[in-house]
Amino acid sequence: MGPVAVDVAPVRTGRVELTRPLVASVEAAVRSTLAAEEGGLVAERLFDDGHAVKKGQVLVRVNTDLLKTQIAAAEAAVEALKAQIEQAQAELERAKLEVERMKPVIEQKAAPQKEMDNAVRDM
Questions:
Q1: pTM here?
Q2: How do the domains of the chain map onto residue ranges?
Q3: What integer is the mean pLDDT of 23-39?
Q4: What SS3 class is residue 33?
């Protein structure tokens, strides 16, 4: 018998990992439903996938720019309505004064009843 052929390779240190492909399925141990008090676009996510979270823990921050714009518009509408109310109250006071001013004139028959009726109607 003659010489045997041998392959030679340099020695290296390292970790040997033995792997075996397996087929499996994974299911969550616990499922939770999330709900938000206000809608909007998520601006920041405050949790990592796969990590446990606690009840009441803030998970996301919502972009509030749209809500702030809507609030500002609603506040402006309220102020405009307040101005309209003030104007209507001023007009009512003016009409009341006009009626009070015309009462003596009507009572003395110096002005027609129609003018008094018009003043009351305009009130």
A1: 0.46
A2: 63-122
A3: 83
A4: coil
